[in-house]
Backbone:
């Protein structure tokens, strides 16, 4: 069907007591781990990943406090995210992987490579937010943890769409948005993305 994208089923793994969401597109070749930007989830790679699975086994991790991964009080520094990525590789029995990070994910890639160079075959920055080479472990800003409440899911989507260009919309983005909110009993939703503008 035109416009249809095959998104693998949501997978979950508990790493050091925290339940993480990830996607596994399978594929042949070396493992490739994709790390989303701040506010994003593994679903953000749904359109890219299938184009890479003929050369790599493609995985994407949703960081703690985002999407379907557990919300936790602490552990939001880049160093923690790097260790979460390493723990995922451990849990899946992957000794060494290529790692690509989008935006803030680039900081996580740098932190992972700095701490565990033997685990990283190569790194790729996708629209990296900052040159992390000199400072791979800054803390995320405190305001990043405060969710926003919306009267309905539709209101949330309207606000997100108003902040972004039309060409970003599509099935992969819709899947990411759906996992970026928690629906409350009254029908309102709380955005779990760090800041709505970072989606």
Residues:
């Amino acid at each position: 069907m035109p416009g249809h994208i095959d998104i693998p089923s949501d997978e979950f793994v508990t790493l050091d007591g925290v339940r993480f969401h990830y996607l596994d597109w399978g594929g042949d070749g070396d493992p490739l781990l994709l790390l989303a930007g701040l506010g994003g989830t593994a679903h953000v790679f749904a359109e890219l990943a299938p184009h890479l699975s003929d050369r790599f086994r493609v995985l994407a991790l949703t960081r703690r406090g985002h999407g379907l991964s557990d919300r936790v009080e602490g552990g939001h520094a880049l160093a923690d995210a790097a260790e979460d990525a390493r723990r995922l590789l451990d849990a899946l029995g992957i000794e060494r992987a290529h790692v690509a990070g989008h935006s803030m994910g680039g900081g996580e890639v740098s932190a992972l490579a700095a701490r565990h160079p033997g685990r990283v075959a190569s790194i790729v920055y996708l629209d990296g937010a900052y040159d992390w080479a000199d400072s791979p472990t800054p803390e995320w800003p405190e305001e990043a943890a405060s969710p926003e409440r919306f009267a309905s899911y539709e209101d949330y989507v309207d606000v997100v769409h108003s902040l972004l260009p039309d060409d970003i919309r599509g099935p992969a983005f819709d899947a990411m948005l759906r996992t970026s909110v928690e629906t409350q009993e009254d029908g309102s939703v709380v955005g779990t993305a760090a800041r709505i503008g970072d989606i």
Summary: The first strand starts at residue 11 and ends at 15.
